[in-house]
Amino acid sequence: MTQTATPMHAFEGLDIAAIVPCYNEEVAVANVVTDLLDAVPGMTVYVYDNNSSDRTAEVAAAAGAVVRTELRKGKGNVVRRAFADIDADIYLLIDGDDTYDAAAAPQLIETLLSGPYDHLLGVRTEDSDTSAYRPGHAAGNRLFNRLISRLFGEPVTDMLSGYRVFSRRFVKSFPSLSREFEIETELTVHAVNLRIPQIEVPVGFRDRPAGSESKLRTYHDGFRILRLIGGLVQYERPLALFSGIGALFMLIAVILGVPLLVTFADTHEVPRLPTAVLATGLVLVGVLSIVVGLIVNGILRLRQETARLTYLRLPPVSRPRTSASR
């Protein structure tokens, strides 16, 4: 990514908070904190120690971070706690493993302000020599991107990225429910559902420093994300889901029932009564499923309106007006 220099005074008057979730990142966290503070002077860097068994908290504090602790394990729990506790104009979320280019922070913040946007997604760019992507993770990420794009109708390039910038009104309208690494999926879907102004920006992505170990569990975390997506489809696209289920039951009922109707038209008899009862039951279940979809879709509309009103209560992110600009 080509970076342009950002003047030191560009963010003067803005309260910018960097949130760095950490679990056993003693080796890497100091570099992340130092790079952020060097890149954006005046930024407050909050390192949330998620029950580390090493010296993550001490190293982060020595590097200049405000260290807080979240006892519940999982990145989702950390983000929920941080979003609730911290008041700022702009929030920057970055992993504490030093795989993302923290020096790109000024450009990302500047881009958020230039929109203004409420959500900026840092899309990881791969370097064949220093890529931190495992082949399985890259393939899984592409699969999830396509799935979310298809289900929610918005193109997503890197929904599992841990490098993002948010406005205050995004953060304070986000009902975080996730516990672990599926938090990125939830953040992405929240942005898509509210149809808020957002943008994707490529960011550098490198391997972990020597001595640092990944906390990702490929299959465990992948299945958790799939389960979350299934739940989000149920709650965010109920009409499509329940109508599809209803249509499937009705199709099976037609396949079972048409031969019985043909026989009945010829003989005025029902030769297979259990099959007739089953087909009738499937039609009823199909109709009931569609009715449930309509009811839940009405509840969804009310939820979306409430979330939108909560979002609109806060002003868009912008630079403070100075005497020179008045």
Care to describe what's here?
The protein is an alpha/beta fold. It folds into two domains: 16-236, Spore Coat Polysaccharide Biosynthesis Protein SpsA, Chain A (Alpha-Beta Complex); 238-312. The protein contains ten helices and seven strands. The protein has helices at 29-39, 56-63, 75-85, 105-114, 135-152, 168-171, 183-194, 218-236, 238-267, 273-312, and strands spanning 16-22, 44-49, 66-69, 90-93, 119-125, 164-167, 198-204. A seven-stranded mixed β-sheet has the order 3-2-1-4-6-5-7, with helices on both faces. Strand 2, helix 2 and strand 3 form a beta-alpha-beta unit. Helix 1 packs parallel to helix 2, helix 5 runs parallel beside helix 8 and helix 7 packs parallel to helix 8 (218-236). The radius of gyration is 25 Å and the shape is elongated. The model has no long low-confidence stretch (mean pLDDT 85).
Query: Using DSSP, what is the number of strands?
Result: 7
H/I helix tally = 10
Number of domains: 2
Globular, elongated, flat, extended or rod-shaped: what is the shape? elongated
* CATH C-level label of the largest domain: Alpha Beta
Mean pLDDT: 85
Task: Give the spatial strand order of the biggest sheet.
Answer: 3-2-1-4-6-5-7
Q: Considering the protein shown, what is the CATH homologous superfamily of the largest domain?
A: Spore Coat Polysaccharide Biosynthesis Protein SpsA, Chain A
Which structural class best describes the helix and strand composition?
Answer: alpha/beta
CATH-assigned fold name of the largest domain: Spore Coat Polysaccharide Biosynthesis Protein SpsA, Chain A
Low-confidence stretches: none
What gyration radius follows from the Cα positions, in whole Å? Answer: 25 Å
Report, as a whole number of angstroms, the end-to-end distance: 35 Å
What level of helicity do the residues show? 40-55%
Give, in order, the helices and strands: EHEHEHEHEHEHHEHHH
Largest beta sheet, briefly? 7 strands, mixed
Percentage of residues in DSSP E strands: 5-15%
State the CATH architecture of the largest domain: Alpha-Beta Complex
